[in-house]
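Escalation from tier 1.

The customer reports that the assembly of two entities below gives different structure tokens on two consecutive runs. Tier 1 could not reproduce it. I'm attaching the input and our single run for tier 2 to review.
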Amino acid sequence: MEPVKVAAVQAAPVLLDRDATIGKVVALAEKAAAEGARLVAFPEAFVPGYPDWVWRTRPWDATASALYARLLDQAVVAGSAAADVLGETARRLGIWLCVGADEREETGSTLYNTLFCFAPDGTLVARHRKLMPTGGERLVWGTGDGSTLDVTDTGFGRLGGLICWENYMPLARAALYARGVDIYLAPTWDNSDVWVPTLRHIAKEGRTYVLGITSCIRATDLPEDLPGRAELYGGADDWLSRGNTAIVSPGGDLLAGPLTGEEGIVYAEIDAGRARACRQQFDPAGHYSRADVLRLTVEATPQAAVSFIGRDDHGEPAPAGGSAPGPLAG
Amino acid sequence: MITVNPLRPAAPHPGRWRGEAGEHMTMLRVAAVQASYVLMNQQATVDRVATLTAAAAGQGAQLVVFPEVFVPGTPIWIDTQPIWEGDEDWFALLAENAVVLPGPASDRLAAIAAEHRVWLVVGVDERDQHGATIYNTVLYFSPGGQLAGRHRKLMPTGSERTVWGMGDGSSLAVVDTGPARVGGLTCWENYMPLARFHLYAQGVDVWIAPTLAPGDGWIATMRHIARENRMFVIGVNPVLHADQVPAGFPARDRLLPPGYLDRNGPWLEEGNTVIVAPGGEVLAGPVRQREQTLIADLDLRDAVIQRRHLDPVGHYNRPDIFRLHVDTSPHRAVSVTSNARRPEEHHGGPDEQRIPDQHARS
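Tier 1 run:
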């Protein structure tokens, strides 16, 4: 197992502007790759931004509805031209590129809080939809299912992760530990003081590297034409998130960060072999589990509200003997 | 016998604040005792529990918590020596001073709880009456002097596995003290997500984490766990300086070999006691390298109010995806079938009734 450099990018999206934000992803990924990073990770719902207004508006106000409509329009669809730009960037730079996005199905109107991971060959290898949004987020995002709790082998460690307060779901974490996660991504909006202790706990619980990646954005970063901008947002001292991006070792020690109050890229050298060796002390899915007492089952079947027989999801005749497309098809 | 519970006085009845509109809100004063044990001396260490509990009760504490295996202390040789090298006498001392249920030590601890009318939680090295395996156990005594709960650590860590056996799922129960439901796990058991979840699902307002773990990483875990289940967390450690190892301790020189203290410092137990609020904020501590009893007033409403944000076993759970199965049956090594009437002494006599069913000896 070779040690590699990884990057966690703390930045401001161009809120509700998908293409401009993707432009930022590309530029920052190029910068991190030039520094030698083999994996570059971006914050929760970075493209086209976290719907911060759910904490500032009354739920069904006209402003909230206008913002939602724009978010729906600017969301990322897997397999679309916008998503292809991300895949192409990963391929061109030869990196693992992980980006949080507001996602929807091509024909769908429900948004999901999704973490995309593209391999260095440009393919979308993982798409995790957050299982449970928090508070006001529940008015904007739907819930993922158990089919996207996968861990991907990068060759320099097994990559997985959970989004924001999903990291407070012990059973979801246990599922990733059982998959052998070595590099654990925790894209988040939580920029409180208590978040960093959580990153450290997870690192020590899973004996895994943890990358906490947070947006850093204040009102002056917001586009002028954002619906409700003057009504909801102030000036330079009005932080939507100050950020707290950090990278933690499998022993729970901070390797880099937390970075707060500024955009920047946080780097660390990681060695998955060390994470695995560290599990001599503690292995939540092995010698420190008690399978005779505590046993978790995970329903990993994709949940589809409607299944078509004889047609695929796009209405085309299903190929004879063909199977339904998997969750990453598109 | 009707016992008076100081956490639930008879008049006016404050009740459980939940669901009883118009009743009083409930505060709970807790004490986390960071103290030194008298190494491998059951009686002298129980004396310390008595003194320190009296002091905490004098400050109005209603729940008094002592560290992991406080009685009669940590088998510290497991990390100062190669495994099984010259540890015979030390292990014999541990077995001799271990707490047997029921027995004189548990009787005294129960009496201390009753005398001061407190809930008393104490970590002990425990063994079965005729057993030679030591368990890392936490005992819960009620203000009425009853043994209300017993938790045997499910999994020891590293070298601990050479002195402690493993508990089973029968001792993973939460104790209802009246206003607060109290439960917890021991030391690195706190890193077992499934065990935590099982306890969360029973409803826990105050989490007790007796431990030996030093350092900031442990504090991060205490804060994370508080925030994960939105409950109060009491992390409680012993503190022991090398000079506090009794002068007459067998092979005292070998216990702390030359160079060991140079490498590791003079604190065999550094302490790390802390009390955390349901939002993850530190209320008291961490305190290190000295004896100190941390006192905090817990507003039990916070544990519920915070769960509107996150409730890992309720609205922030996904039971359609995750299903945890727990075997809470006692794992007994031997199951005896016989036509003969079971001899009464088989379960150790009438005192056995003081231990709740789920805690019956295996």
